[in-house]
Design a protein that fits this description.
This protein is an all-alpha fold. Helices cover 76% and strands 0% of the residues. The chain starts with 7 loop residues before the first helix and ends with a helix.
Length: 131
């Protein structure tokens, strides 16, 4: 994997950590009740399949972010790059979709907030990963 322009192990660890952040974000400790109220989703139907596919999507996102960050850029660059990707790309893409779908600001804040935090964390891990 040395031929890759990024550290694949860092991307895998970043995806795992971001997935754990999502578990906390959408848990009773934080936003699950508000998220359920906004989406109407309140059952666990199909949960194993959803979690597997969600992790695969997180892994792809982490590899993509790692390709943009590269190797050995440092914690501060990784934090900035992850935050910029989360807020500037993902949250704004969600905003466009939510506007046309007429979804609530509250739901956007929950979901875009998670994406921004998750990408910031992934960027930090990828940027700070030692060579």
């Amino acid at each position: 994997m040395e031929s890759l322009p990024f550290n694949a192990l860092a991307a895998i660890v970043a995806a795992i950590i971001a997935f754990l952040v999502g578990w906390l974000w959408y848990s009773p400790l934080l936003f699950v009740k508000a998220w359920q109220a906004e989406t109407g989703v309140d059952d666990g139907g199909g949960a194993p399949r959803i979690f597997i596919l969600a992790f695969l999507a997180t892994l792809i996102a982490a590899f993509n972010l790692a390709a943009f960050i590269g190797r050995g850029k440092g914690l501060s660059f990784g934090l900035f790059a992850g935050f910029a990707a989360g807020l500037g790309w993902v949250a704004m893409a969600l905003a466009i979709i939510y506007l046309f779908e007429r979804r609530s600001l509250r739901l956007w804040l929950i979901n875009a907030g998670y994406m921004t935090v998750a990408f910031t964390v992934m960027g930090a891990v990828i940027g700070a990963w030692p060579e």
